[in-house]
Amino acid sequence: MNSTAGVLLQVPLFKLYRKFGWPKLLPLNLTLSPSPKCNSRCLTCNIWMKRENELTIDEWDKVLSSLGTAPYWFTISGGEPLMYPHVVELAQLAYKHCRPGIINIPTNAILPIIPDRVERIARSCPDSQVIINLSLDGIGEKHDHIRGIKGNFEKFEERLSQLLALRSRLSNLVIGIHSVVSVFSVGHLDEIINYVDRSGADQFITEIAEPRIELDTVGLPITPSAHDYAKAIDRLISYVQGKQYRGTARITEAMRVEYYKLVKRILDEQDQVIDCYAGWVSAQIYADGTVWPCCVRADDLGNLREYNYDFKKIWFGDKIKEVRRSVAAKECHCPLANASYTNMLHDIPTLTRIAGTLMLPGKRSPHSAGAITTEAPMARPKQHIGG
Amino acid sequence: MAFDWLNKFQQQLEKDPHYAERTLAAYKLGMKAKGSIAGVIVQPGADCCSAARDLPMGKVYHPDEAPRLPLANCPLASRCSCVYRPAMSYDLSPK
After folding, report:
1. Interchain CB contact of A297 with B (< 8 Å)
2. What is the mean pLDDT of chain A?
């Protein structure tokens, strides 16, 4: 089974790989998008309109077997991944072939079938941490408006309650809440923080709405201004820093604060700020079998159907070299959370700051703030950093 | 606009032979399924042909009526830098 220590030991190797092209390594962080279909109608996403000639589950089997035990962190994305009819089998295949440390699945929390599918995944992948992040972009009607579905917030609450009950029975299950900070939600992030604080969820992660080729949102005015984002996220940083965390949670929260600060700098400076490892450490496999370095650029590195489902043939082939050159030359920059967290793991100044934070004595929980009733409901020791 | 590099990056990508059909079919489905998409806009590339320059700027088309990209006789063919953009209702509302 993949371990966190094993991941950290590979950091210097990936730094060498990015700089010199050697040693050749498969990605640690892999996103699988089995289908773009989704039953949400979000203002910040257009992927749900797409239809693809999707890989069958037998084809996924071949793809995943070609990866061996390299990936540590899988994200099963969409569309709405828990609506994909073979999502349980897909997770089981990833577990069988790759033995990942983490299987992370975002969800819009709409379908009643979700808790059953999550339970089947968590039970059949007992040595992986299964992280389910429920999307929350506002409270009540604000959520419904942004997600384009009347009654979505009510379903979110129902699903959250069901999944928290499930979590109490399954030790490898982590339930988180994920918010997209967009022009539509940046003004009410405080309300979301207050809600999440009382929710009982293990973790709260936010990601800025950004244009992505995958989502067909290039050119759309969904990203908040650097000023508005900074104002909102500073309050979230203060909130996180004002709480007391123990064990692994201290590390994960320190990583999150670093990520939020990184996003502010990326928006301000319009630059990568730290080296991006998309195309070396992280990658995505789209529904039709196309391999991308990331979902923002969505460069077509090759289709697995044309390479006998062997990921290595694409990853170590010629086409990816130009994309790696472009990423290394900083011809792109973005705050994509999934890639950013692995990028931060490979950035020595970031790791130094996190180590410094961890050496400081833990702060006391500001009970006077009102909303906090337990030590840190969002910081159970088993939580993970990822988005 | 934040991340303007991505706009230019996408315009430089080689187009799939089915780019127009696939993109317009997606937008048509989006309208039928009551998303916030209101139509499609053609965004001409910086080095576009004269036919693309002559298209009405910012016009919102129904996907069935939008010009097919690359435009006929575009000298750049699959390297045509014009792209479709979804016209979102929230972006079209009077500001």
Report:
1. yes
2. 92
Q: Are A49 and B37 a contacting pair at CB < 8 A?
A: yes
pLDDT of residue A387 exceeding 70? no
Tens-place pLDDT, residues A245-274: 877 788 889 999 999 999 999 999 999 999
| pLDDT recorded at residue A377 | 37
Contact A267 B2 (CB under 8 A): yes
Q: What is the reported pLDDT for A1?
A: 56
Q: A203 vs A147, A197, A253, A378, A385, CA distance in Å?
A: 21, 9, 9, 4, 9
Asked if A146 and A185 touch (Cβ cutoff 8 Å), the reply is yes
pTM of the model as a whole: 0.94
Nearest CB neighbour to B30, from listed A49, A210, A334? A49
Taking contacts as CB-CB distances below 8 angstroms, the residues of chain B near A228 are: none
B 38-67: CB under 8 A from A: 43
Q: What are phi and psi of B62, to 5 degrees?
A: -75, 140
- Residue A50: its pLDDT value, please? 98
In chain A, % of residues over pLDDT 70: 93
Q: Is A267 on the interface with B (CB under 8 A)?
A: yes
Domain positions in chain B are: 21-92
Q: Which of A216, A267, A334 sits opposite B86 (nearest CB)?
A: A216
Task: Report yes or no: A200 at the B interface, CB cutoff 8 Å.
Answer: no
